[in-house]
Design brief:
With about 130 residues, this protein is mainly alpha-helical. It is built from four helices and no strands.
């Protein structure tokens, strides 16, 4: 009789754990579904927003915008080209002086060394492991 009781307790405990796991899995599916629905709502709202922006842009002219700005006392200024922090660090090609013909810069030397060390078959040399 004691063996039967122990076996029954084990079966009931395993059943409870299985039900707990099924419950957690169902909750995970419901949360995933809710996230998906929220994402779809956001996408639809963004589409509606872009449609409205396009409609506003279609219905307004630069003259309308100037007139509205003048009525409100707003001074309009042309948009200036912005420079990102990465562009500030690197600089642009137009900022650097052009190299003279026939002269090789320090940065060209490693590139020349790499191109000269390639094998004739065009494949890179691999290490032998």
């Amino acid at each position: 009789m004691r063996l039967f009781a122990k076996l029954l307790v084990i079966v009931v405990a395993l059943g409870a754990m299985a039900l707990g796991l099924l419950s957690l899995r169902q909750q995970r599916y419901e949360v995933s579904n809710e996230i998906s629905r929220a994402h779809n709502r956001i996408v639809e709202q963004e589409r509606a927003q872009w449609r409205l922006r396009a409609e506003v842009a279609q219905r307004s002219t630069p003259a309308d915008i100037r007139e509205a700005a003048e009525k409100r006392g707003i001074e309009l200024a042309p948009v200036q080209e912005s420079v990102t922090p990465a562009e500030e660090k690197v600089g642009t090609k137009s900022d650097a002086p052009a190299p003279k013909a026939g002269s090789a810069s320090k940065t060209d030397a490693p590139a020349k060394a790499r191109t000269q060390s390639k094998p004739a078959n065009g494949k890179a040399a691999t290490g032998g492991r």
